[in-house]
Specification:
Blueprint (H helix, E strand, L loop, with lengths): L2 E5 L5 H10 L9 H4 L11 E5 L2 E6 L2 E3 L2 E4 L9 E2 L5 H17 L4 E5 L10 H11 L1 E12 L10 H11 L4 E5 L2 H16 L7 H10 L4 E8 L2 E10 L3 E8 L8 H14 L5 E3 L12 H8 L4 E11 L9
Parallel strand pairs: 5-7, 12-13
Antiparallel strand pairs: 1-2, 2-3, 3-6, 4-5, 7-14, 8-13, 8-14, 9-10, 10-11, 11-12
Helix pairs in contact: 3-4, 5-8
Length: about 325
């Protein structure tokens, strides 16, 4: 197959965005309005791969020294496939990408794949291609609810008990525009519980919400006039992701976050294939066992996202 590769330039914006929208695994995180909100922090080296004059794949990426990353500024980078490709064609395409990187004196590619539940199809075909040319160096579990499961089988006994307490608290839950109030709650909760802070600033998340008002939404739970819990949701084609979730520090008020989570599950259960509750890791990368239990108590199961390393300094392609 004859492939042609171009590095992304602003003049290619329409081609890039149209390809993402037509793809079998891209999401709004791959659109330039999302990727470019932090363009000042990354040196873009994204690739558009053509077959003839038709773009067939995209690689969102940035360069650091002589290494390429896809992508440290996104939950996932990965190879965006504009349309399904046969396995031999995928392998030829990926070899062409690695050859292009070598010609540009890039010595390695670090890639965080698109999690499999975001695909229309062809997940394993792409993984088999990656295995041919590189190796998986890490796996991260996303805790995901499969909406094919009957909704009345999701919650365990502890969660049902907490939800009964929440019903007695007279809570008000729904969509919200109180981004400032939630961000203060989020910062406090992350600092106290995990010694961490949000990836985005308040200004950044507001900007992204303005650019993607249908895809990025805030839900909150109040008791009278007091904000107790909130969640920032990312709604893609098949997946609703809990991008941020925070609740009260006081244990007696913890049922509020369960009530919020149940409300969101019920609102979206028939509208998506998967509800992604995110990862469950401590700041040092080790498993957060209490958070894992909480996510499992809502019916979530782990699905892995792999991180891949590809050396590109070799002259010869691996055998097919």
């Amino acid at each position: 197959m004859n492939f042609r590769i171009e590095t992304y330039q602003p003049a290619n914006r329409r081609v890039w965005d149209r390809s993402v929208m037509q793809s079998i695994n891209g999401t709004f995180l791959h659109l330039r309005d999302y990727m470019d909100y932090h363009a000042h922090r990354f040196t873009d080296f994204s690739l558009i791969i053509y077959m003839g004059n038709e773009p067939v794949a995209l690689l969102p990426a940035h360069i650091e020294g002589n290494r390429l990353f896809s992508h440290r500024g996104l939950t996932y980078g990965g190879l965006v496939l504009v349309r399904p490709l046969r396995v031999p064609v995928l392998r030829d395409l990926w070899q062409t990408v690695l050859d292009f990187l070598a010609e540009n004196r890039i010595t390695g590619l670090h890639l965080d794949e698109i999690p499999p539940f975001y695909y229309d199809w062809q997940t394993e075909a792409l993984r088999r291609t990656f295995e041919t040319y590189g190796k998986s160096v890490a796996a991260k579990d996303f805790w995901v609810i499969d909406t094919r499961r009957p909704g009345d089988t999701l919650y365990n006994a502890d969660r049902r008990r907490s939800l009964r307490k929440a019903e007695r608290m007279q809570l008000q839950t729904g969509p919200s525009e109180d981004w400032a109030g939630f961000w203060e709650l989020l910062r406090t909760s992350l600092a106290i519980r995990h010694g961490a802070r949000p990836v985005h600033s308040l200004e950044e998340i507001r900007l992204l919400h303005e650019r993607f008002p249908e895809q990025i939404r805030l839900f909150t739970t109040y008791r009278n006039d007091t904000l107790l819990a909130g969640a920032v949701l990312y709604h893609t084609r098949h997946v609703l992701r809990f991008q941020y979730l925070a609740g009260p520090v006081e244990n007696r008020l913890r049922p509020a976050i369960d009530a919020l989570t149940r409300h969101i599950i019920e609102q979206y259960y028939s509208r998506v294939r998967y509800l992604d509750l995110g990862t469950a890791l401590l700041p040092d990368g080790s498993p957060n066992t209490s958070l894992i239990y909480w996510k499992q108590s809502f019916g979530a199961c782990p699905l892995a996202q792999y991180t891949w390393e590809f050396p590109v300094q070799n002259d010869e392609a691996p055998g097919l």
